[in-house]
Write a structure and sequence with these properties.
With 487 residues, this protein is α+β, with helices and mostly antiparallel strands. Strands 2-8-9-7-6 form a five-stranded antiparallel sheet, sandwiched between helices. It is globular, with a radius of gyration of 23 Å. The chain starts with 13 loop residues before the first helix and ends in a 30-residue tail after the last helix.
C-alpha cells in the first residue's frame, strides 16, 4: 500500500515579529471545491518543496493557506501608496496574505504569499477574491519575465476555489500562490512615515537593508545607501522592461518593490506594434502609465520613497532633502547606462562601443519601427537575420526604406553578431492575443492552450518547430486591446 507524500515546510514570521505595527494576523478563506490548475514544479524544487506532495489535498490546502503548519502566522501587510498620483494613506493587503518566509535550497529568504484569499480589514469594500483568468495571467507573465531574465515575483501555483466571483460577469474564483524576495514596497515606507513613528521607520529600513541591500549596513550612511541601492535596482528593472516592450500598466508606489523585482501583473501586457504612447490598462484613462512614460514615473515613485526616508537621512530637513535629491538624480544616468548595455546586446555590438553611439542607433531604429507600426518583438528578432546578411524580412516591415538602408549600413559597419543577438532578442513573449485565448479557454475549463503557451514563453529564445504561431504578431483585427486589474 502506497503512502501519500507529505508536505514538510517551515514558515518563519520575521516580518510580523520585527514589524508588528504593519502586520495584521489573518486567515485565508476556505475554498468550497479546490482544484489545482497549474503548479510550477521547477520553482517548487527551488524552494525545497515536493511537487508530488503539493498535488495532494494537504498540499493544495497549503497553497490555499488553509492547511498550514501549526507554527505558521499568516498576516495581511499594511502599506500606503500613491495610486495614479493620488495618495491613499491606508491600502494594505485587501485580498492577499503573507503566509510567512521560507529558506530555499540556496539559502535565500523568500516570501510565500497569497492573492485572492478573501477579505481582510484592508479590503476597502472589495470582496477580497480573484478570478481564474487574472491569476493565470500573473502566472504566465511572471514566468515569462523570469525566463527573460528580468527580476520578478514568481507564481508557485494557481488553485481554483470553486467559488463564484462577481465582476462584469460571474467568473470562477482562484487563488495565486506567489513567491518573492519580499513584499516590501515604497508604499510600506509611506505607511511607516505617515505614522510619525521614527522607530518603526528605522526598523523597517533596517529590515529592508538586511533582506535586500546588506552592503548598505556597512556604509557611512546606511539609509542613504539603502536609497541609492533601490534607485539603482529600479533603474535597471525599468530599463529591462523597456528593452523587451513590457508595459506594467499600474506603476503605483505600492507596486514598486524595494528588492527591484517586478510585482503585480494586473493590467500588464507586451507591446504589439511599437508605440511609446501605448496604454493597455482599462483604468489608465490619461495614459499616466503609458509604455514610454515608465522611466519618468519610476523616478517619480522613487521621489516618494525619498520623502518617506527624509527623517532617517538627516535630522535637519534641508540637508535631508539635498541628500535625497542628489541620490535621486542618479536615476537618469543609471537608467541610461542600463538601457545602453541592453541595447548593445540587442544590437549585437561589441562591448567597446560608446553608450551615446549605442543609444543613438537604438533610438533611430525605434523611430523607424514607430513610423511603420512594426511589431516590436518580431523586429528585434529579425535583426539577427539582418546581421547575418539577410535584411529582407525587416525591410518588408519598415515604411521608410531609404532611411532603414542607411541605418543598416552604419550598423553593419560595426560588426554585429547575429547569433549573439538571437540569445537576447526573444522569439516568444506572452503575446496579448495568445494570452487572451489561453485565459478564455482556461476559464471555460480547458487548460491545454495555457500549457502550450507556457511551454513557448518559458523558452523565449528558442524557435522550435510547431511553435510558429507563438512568434507571429497579433492578427490585424486584434485592435484596441485592454487589460483589467481583476478587482
Amino acid at each position: 500500500m502506497s503512502v501519500a507524500p507529505s508536505v514538510t515546510l517551515r514558515l518563519d514570521d520575521r516580518f510580523a515579529r520585527e514589524l508588528p505595527e504593519m502586520a495584521l494576523a489573518w486567515k485565508a478563506l476556505p475554498a468550497p471545491d479546490p482544484r489545482l490548475l497549474v503548479l510550477n514544479e521547477p520553482l517548487a524544487a527551488e524552494l525545497g518543496l515536493d511537487a508530488e506532495a503539493l498535488r495532494t489535498p494537504a498540499g493544495v490546502g497549503l497553497l490555499l493557506g488553509t492547511d498550514l503548519p501549526a507554527d505558521a502566522h499568516p498576516v495581511a501587510q499594511a502599506y500606503a501608496g500613491h495610486q495614479f498620483g493620488g495618495y491613499s494613506p491606508r491600502l494594505g493587503d485587501g485580498r492577499a496574505l503573507l503566509l510567512g518566509e521560507l529558506t530555499d535550497r540556496e539559502g535565500r529568504t523568500r516570501d510565500l504569499h497569497l492573492k485572492g484569499s478573501g477579505r481582510t480589514p484592508f479590503s476597502r469594500g472589495g470582496d477580497g477574491l480573484a478570478a481564474v483568468g487574472p491569476m493565470l495571467r500573473e502566472h504566465v507573465v511572471s514566468e515569462a519575465m523570469h525566463a527573460l531574465g528580468i527580476p520578478t515575483t514568481r507564481s508557485l501555483a494557481v488553485v481554483a476555489t470553486g467559488r463564484a466571483v462577481q465582476r462584469e460577469t460571474v467568473l470562477p474564483g482562484a487563488v495565486l500562490t506567489r513567491v518573492a524576495s519580499s513584499h516590501l514596497r515604497v508604499g510600506s515606507f509611506q505607511y511607516a512615515r505617515a505614522t510619525d513613528d521614527l522607530d518603526l521607520l528605522r526598523r523597517l529600513a533596517d529590515h529592508a537593508i538586511d533582506r535586500h541591500h546588506p552592503a548598505a549596513a556597512d556604509a557611512a550612511h546606511p539609509y542613504r545607501a539603502l536609497f541609492d541601492g533601490v534607485v539603482e535596482a529600479q533603474a535597471s528593472l525599468v530599463a529591462q522592461w523597456m528593452l523587451v516592450g513590457f508595459v506594467h500598466g499600474v506603476m503605483n508606489t505600492d507596486n514598486v518593490t524595494i528588492s527591484g523585482e517586478t510585482i503585480d501583473y494586473g493590467p500588464c501586457a507586451f507591446l504589439d506594434a511599437y508605440d511609446p504612447a501605448t496604454v493597455y490598462s482599462s483604468i489608465d484613462h490619461g495614459g499616466r502609465y503609458a509604455y514610454g512614460n515608465q522611466p519618468v514615473l519610476a523616478q517619480w515613485n522613487l521621489a516618494r520613497f525619498a520623502e518617506s526616508l527624509l527623517p532617517l537621512l538627516d535630522a535637519e530637513q534641508d540637508r535631508a532633502v539635498a541628500m535625497a535629491v542628489e541620490s535621486l538624480e542618479r536615476f537618469t544616468p543609471a537608467y541610461a547606462a542600463a538601457r545602453a548595455a541592453g541595447l548593445r546586446r540587442k544590437l549585437g555590438l561589441p562591448a567597446g562601443q560608446a553608450d551615446d553611439l549605442v543609444l543613438g542607433l537604438g533610438d533611430e531604429l525605434l523611430v523607424l519601427l514607430h513610423a511603420g507600426r512594426v511589431d516590436h518583438t518580431s523586429a528585434w528578432r529579425m535583426m539577427g537575420t539582418a546581421a547575418r546578411g539577410d535584411a529582407e524580412p525587416l525591410r518588408g516591415q519598415v515604411l521608410d526604406l531609404p532611411a532603414l538602408d542607411a541605418w543598416l549600413e552604419r550598423w553593419r559597419a560595426l560588426g554585429p553578431d547575429g547569433d549573439a543577438m538571437d540569445r537576447v532578442n526573444p522569439v516568444h513573449v506572452p503575446r496579448n492575443h495568445l494570452v487572451e485565448e489561453a485565459l478564455d479557454a482556461a476559464t471555460a475549463g480547458d487548460l491545454a492552450p495555457l500549457t502550450a503557451l507556457l511551454d513557448a514563453v518559458t523558452s523565449p529564445y528558442d524557435a522550435r518547430p510547431g511553435q510558429e504561431r507563438y512568434a507571429e504578431p497579433a492578427p490585424v483585427d486584434f485592435g484596441d486591446y485592454q487589460t483589467f486589474c481583476g478587482t
